[in-house]
């Protein structure tokens, strides 16, 4: 016998003026039988002991309304559980960057106009200790400059032509930083900033 037998529900009524509404309606013998079936199944499953079964059986036989029957089986019927909320990216759990953080992050990106790693490195190791947002953008600028340097060395100087494109990228990245948005650069060497909250994807 199934332990998930349907619980009696009030039948739809075409009258609206004289009959009570909802659970206050009187139940039938068939409704009581369905509840007794559920009690028997719950006893067989071990969810009710003999004393509990006897008490609920007696209450079922004396029940007059749907509300009385529902209270007898409320803890025996599985209730739907809400689906867990999707996990947010780690950076969304941080407070939004301040105006100062945005300006410093944009400055870190703008240092690529003069490709010397000193500028973003200073911001990464100083301001980055107290601002994950600045650290994130300074790491992006460092990774971009080191990637350009590596390409230039590997191509015996031919990669230097990419610096013209880097100036355009630096401008665009600085605008992103001023807007207070994170920046993903999967095409650069991930040397700095790995594992930070702005690098973690949504689960």
From TrEMBL:
It is found in: Membrane. Its main location: membrane. It holds the Pfam family MamF_MmsF. It comes from the Bacteria. It is a multi-pass membrane protein. Residues 1-21 have a biased composition (Low complexity). Keywords: Membrane, Transmembrane, Transmembrane helix. InterPro entries: DUF1707_SHOCT-like, MamF_MmsF. This is DUF1707 and DUF4870 domain-containing protein. It comes from Nocardioides turkmenicus.
């Amino acid at each position: 016998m199934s332990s998930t037998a349907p619980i009696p529900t009030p039948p739809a009524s075409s009258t609206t003026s004289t009959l009570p509404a909802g659970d206050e309606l009187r139940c039938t013998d068939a409704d009581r039988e369905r509840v007794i079936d559920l009690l028997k199944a719950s006893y067989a499953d071990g969810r009710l002991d003999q004393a509990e079964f006897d008490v609920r059986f007696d209450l079922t036989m004396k029940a007059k309304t749907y509300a009385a029957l529902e209270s007898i089986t409320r803890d025996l019927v599985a209730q739907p559980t809400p689906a867990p909320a999707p996990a947010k990216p780690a950076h969304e759990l941080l407070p939004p960057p301040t105006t100062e953080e945005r300006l410093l992050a944009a400055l870190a990106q703008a240092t690529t106009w003069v490709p010397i790693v000193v500028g973003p490195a200073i911001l990464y190791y100083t301001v980055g200790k107290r601002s994950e947002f600045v650290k994130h953008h300074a790491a992006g600028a460092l990774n971009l400059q080191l990637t350009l340097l590596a390409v230039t060395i590997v191509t015996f100087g031919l990669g230097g032509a990419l610096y013209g494109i880097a100036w355009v990228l630096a401008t665009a990245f600085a605008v992103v930083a001023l807007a207070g948005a994170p920046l993903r650069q999967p095409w650069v060497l991930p040397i700095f900033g790995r594992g930070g909250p702005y690098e973690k994807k949504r689960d």
